[in-house]
Amino acid sequence: MSSSDIPEKKKHNKFWNPALLVIPLLLASLVLACLFGPLPIPVHDVLHILWMQALSLLGLSAPAADTTWQVVVVDIRLSRIVLSCLVGACMGVAGTVFQGILRNPLADPFTLGVSSGAAFGATLVIYLGLSQTFFGLSLLPVAGLVGSLGALAVVIALGRINGELRRETLILAGIVVATFLAALISLLKAMDEEAVSAMVFWIMGSFQGRGWSHVGLLIPYMILGFGLIYRYSRELDILCLGDLQARHLGVDVGRVRIMLLLGASLMTGAAVAVSGIIGFVGLVVPHFVRMLQGSEHRPLLIMSGLGGGLLLLWSDVLARTILPDGVELPVGVITALLGGPFFCLLLKGKGHGGFK
Which of 8, 144, 259, 269 is 20 to 30 Å apart from 216, CA to CA? Predict the structure, then answer.
């Protein structure tokens, strides 16, 4: 083995060693999280229901009868667990992209006003009384997704200076759009006090009442967004060197930046549309993973997705079990309580996590 092979081998192991730990932990968590809920179900019955469901999906067994326990485990708990895992993965990946594009470790999926756009779309639907369910799916997630993509379009339009999209102007445009949309949300709250509680609960983030239909809504945008991001992940590594260096290396900075923003915003918008605003996942997880395994974006994207899914999955378990009598906390409260102090420790101990 030549000496030139050693760094590549170390880099390869630096990704796969933590991945081999996190992937089994995430799969085990999908099962273990089904054990928790206000309705006590014996452990062996939960495991039996999940096993029969797996066999049924593989075509090896006929589906069991729709007993109450099966409905609770599969249609309520498991769907919510899968959704929280996918939303966390979206937040982790999108946070990695925003931090890379903006070269700022304090950036997250909501820096450019994407979350504010989704929140405004959902709030407007609640205000207009259009939050009823049609064909098993509420208009809330659709409005949230449209609002997030609309906010991104406005930010990109405002962020162009002489036809060029700069990271500094993107941040400023994101702040302006987010502030304006926050004012509109406050106006809607003031105009309809009876709907304030519903608006606030949605904005704070929750998986209560979500199901497989929301998983189905999220997955296409998640796949499309991640595909765009992964396609341009090498260029994202080069963008982190600075715009001038990237152009010298042949990167079309403006085009690559827009494609990465579109991919990250698709994932963020879809995630916020089905869950509301859940903070700190897209901020803390990429920052922490970057400290552990470096700044190469392809392994960083995958590990941030896995870590975000794992964090949000167990945060939601806490949100639905920590209070008695089946009362739930918004999961955004749990992620803030966990992520805030943890991120302060990261900043205190490691500084800027690889960005200058």
Answer: 259
